[in-house]
Amino acid sequence: MHVPDGFIDAPTSAVTGVIAAGALAVSLRGARRELGGTSRASEAERGGEKTAPLAGLVAAFIFAVQMLNFPVAAGTSGHLLGGALAAILVGPYTGVLCVSVVLLMQGVLFADGGLTALGVNITDMALVTTVVSYAVFRGLLAVLPRGRRSVTVASFVAALVSVPAAACAFTLIYAVGGTTDVSIGKVATAMIGVHVLIGVGEAVITALTVGAVIAVRPDLVHGARGLRQRLRLRVDGELVDAPASPVSPAAAPTSRRKVWVTGLVASLVLAGFVSFYASASPDGLEKVAHDKGIDTRAREHASAGSPLADYGVKDVSDARLSGGLAGVIGVGVTVVAGSAVFWAVRRRRDTDVPPVSHGL
């Protein structure tokens, strides 16, 4: 659903740019707590130090999976948006930053999503999907039984809802600042209809990924924190925490480093190899734009001459090798850029915490 240059007029693009900038500023502040916790944080919020190393990986994984367009209807494909996945794994504020990093890398390096439309894309694909999905996710967890299965189910539904929500948001933006005279009713019907189908694919990918991480390290899933309550015993009329059971080496949880390496390898394989077999059909927005005439004023991307434009390496004639190299480079650049951003956010939080006084 990457909006290209020319779909939305300049004033509306500027307004969405301001909205996106404000959302990023708020997310940077909120991500400090998610990535490092605070002295006032609840027990469910603590453990952010486990999130920081994974946030850059989540961004890289979203980049990789977005290269895997899957067919949803005759002549139409879809791909992961990633807002729900990021919000559930690393938190809603960090999730907005994750998807925004991906969109920035795609727009600057791969000519995917207009640069003048970057505010539109961040507002639609990062902000709307994350906010809507996390609200649905938390609402479901409040009524479902506490447990890992409920987290996976809630992830599925949240992701499913987030995609047509993004389609609605685009339709509203287009109603305000669209550059062609097209019936908004027809645009809304077409956009929501096809993105409901894409939402099913998003839901499956999100639920499978969240379920896989929960299976090995549930403590790394932001949305699953606080679900496990420590056993309490009544001793002499008072409730006390039961001692933790010793964990045998065989039952020890998978290390964070192993999870990170496994996720990075999976991302490289998906982007470098599996992406070659992705559907070549236009995605939902491209298809609707062509059928309804929205794309008549689309402009060539400012980075169309980039060496990695259109997810291929310039001067590499073999299509499989060109696409694979571009995917691997994209994953590498995204994980480095994302990790740098989240390291800086966490480091800023550490410097903001006042020193503890030990005076007598």
From TrEMBL:
The chain crosses the membrane at residues 51-68, 80-105, 125-144, 156-176, 188-216, 259-278, 324-345. The keyword Transmembrane applies. It is found in: Cell membrane. GO terms for cellular component: plasma membrane. GO terms for biological process: transition metal ion transport. Residues 257-347 form the PDGLE domain. It is a multi-pass membrane protein. Its main location: membrane. Keywords: Cell membrane, Membrane, Transmembrane, Transmembrane helix, Transport. The keyword Ligase does not apply. InterPro entries: CbiM/NikMN, PDGLE_dom. PANTHER family: METAL TRANSPORT PROTEIN HI_1621-RELATED (PTHR34229:SF1). This is Cobalt ABC transporter permease. It comes from Streptomyces griseofuscus. The lineage of its organism: Bacteria, Bacillati, Actinomycetota, Actinomycetes, Kitasatosporales.
